[in-house]
C-alpha cells in the first residue's frame, strides 16, 4: 500500500483534527448501530492521539472495549468521477469503518495502515460522515497478545474484569496516526517496489510498478538531490543504472527521487507517484553487518512511540526532537520496539541517515519461565501464526522501500525455547525471506543460548539481558563476567554476529547515590559502562542498543514507578547522567569501528 501523498495527479485531505468521540462501556454501539446516525453525547477527541490520557477520567484511561470516533468532511466537487480512498494510519487494535453508515473496512492489528475504497459512497459536493469504532482488546490471536481476566471470588464485584498483557508498555488505544482521504484516477499505481545494488561506482535500482489495469504505460524518472535527471526507464519493471551514484550511508543520507508515471493508452497522465530512493546494500557476512560493503556498528536504542498526553499518537514535534537527541548523543540507529512505527518517522530516518531495525508487534510471547508453554492450541496457535504472517507481510509491504530499514525483527522475547516455536518461526523466517530476499532477519532473544531452538533461522543474534537488574539486583560487580559468558556462548553455539538489543537499568531522574544503588542515575551509568567494557572486548558484538531511549508509560505494577524509567532521557526528553556518558562514548566511536 502506498503512503498517501500529494502528487501531480493525487490529492489528499487530511482529516486530522478534533473528532467527536464516545466510549462504549456497555458495548451497545454495534448492536444499536450507532454508525447509522450522528453519534450522540460525544466529547471532543484529537486525532491522531491515544484517547487514554486526554481526559481526567480514569475509567476512560483504563477502558476495555469499543470506543467510537466520528468526523464529517466535504469532498470537493472537483473529485467527482475519481477513485476516492480513505486511509487510516493506525487504529489500535481492531477497527470497523463506516462512511455515511455504509461499512467500508474492518481491520485487525494496531500498528499498520489500512484503506478503503469509498468511491460511490462518499458524495462529492456535500458533507459526508465517517464513523470508526476502535476496540483495544488483546487476546491470544492478536499481536501483541493478552487475555481478559474475570474474577469469580466475592472480593471483586460481579462482572469486574481486567485486560492482562505480557508486555510492560501501556496498552494505549485509539486513532494513533492520521486519517486521510485521497483521490486517484480510475487507472492508478497500486504499488511500487524498489531494490538497490552497487557495482563499482554505479548504483542499480530495480523497480516494479503494479498498476490497477494492464493497459497503462509506465515511465520512471530518477532525479538526484539537485533535481537533475540521473536515469530514466520505461515499462512496469526494469533496472535503472545510476552512474557515479551517491550512496545512502548511515548519518550521511543521500536520497534520489523516483517519479513514477502511469499513462493512459492515449498518452495522457493517469497517475503519478514519488518515492525517495536511497541506494545502498545490506548484507551479513561472517560476523559482520555490512552496509555498502563496510562493517556497521549499531549504536542506539530500543524506543517507543510514547509521550505525555498524546500517548502513542503521532507527533512531529516529539519525533523531530527525538531525532535531534539521537544525533546529539551520537547514536546511529534504533529498533522500532515493539511494533511498526509511523511511516512519517521512517521518512525522517531515511532523510537523516538513521538506521532502523523494523519489528513486528510480537511482544509478550513468553512468561519468562522455561517450563511455561506459550505455543499451545489454546494460546499462541495456528490462528495466531496466520495473523503473525499477515502482519509481517503487511510490514514488509509498507516499509520495503525505506533505505533506513536494514533488518526485520520477527518477534521480541518469544518462548523460543519451546519445541513448538521451531515450526512457528521457521515458517515466519521463510515468509520474510520470500517477501524480502535482500534484508537480513532476526528475532530478539530472551532464553539463554543453550535453550534457544530457533536462532539458526536468522542472520543476527539479538539479545536482551538485564544482569544486575532483574537478575542479581544490585550486583554490578557481576555484570562483566555474566555478559561475557553469555555473549561468548551465543557466538560459540551459532557463529553469528551479536547485537545487544536491550540492556539497562531504571533510573529516576534526580536520584543520586555514590557508590551507586539501584534506581539512581549513577547506577544506570555504571551498569551500562560495565556492559560496554565487554562489548569492546568481543569482536563478534556488532551493536549496542540501550533500553530505552526515553522513560515510557507502562501498565501499573509493583516493578514500575509511574512507568518504566530505563530511559536515558526522561519522558520529557531531558538527559540523565548516562546520556552524557553515551554521548562521549559514541562520539569517539566510528560507524565502522576499528575492532570490526
Ligand atoms: C524487556 C522487554 C521490554 C521491557 C524491558 C524492561 O523487551 O519491553 O520494557 O524488558 O523490563 O524484557 O524494562
From TrEMBL:
InterPro entries: Beta-gal/glucu_dom_sf (IPR036156), Galactose-bd-like_sf (IPR008979), GH (IPR017853), Glyco_hydro_2 (IPR006101), Glyco_hydro_2_AS (IPR023232), Glyco_hydro_2_cat (IPR006103), Glyco_hydro_2_CS (IPR023230), Glyco_hydro_2_N (IPR006104)
Single GO molecular function: beta-glucuronidase activity
Presence of the UniProt keyword Transferase in the record: no
Gene3D superfamilies: Galactose-binding domain-like, Glycosidases, Immunoglobulins
Residue span(s) of domain Glycoside hydrolase family 2 immunoglobulin-like beta-sandwich: 188-280
Domain Glycosyl hydrolases family 2 sugar binding, first and last residues per copy: 12-184
Keyword Methyltransferase tagged: no
Enzyme class, first EC level, given as a word: hydrolase
Stated family: Belongs to the glycosyl hydrolase 2 family.
Stored PANTHER family: BETA-GLUCURONIDASE
Name listed for the protein in its UniProt record: Beta-glucuronidase
Organism for this UniProt entry: Paenibacillus phytohabitans
Taxonomy of the source species: Bacteria, Bacillati, Bacillota, Bacilli, Bacillales
Annotated gene: uidA
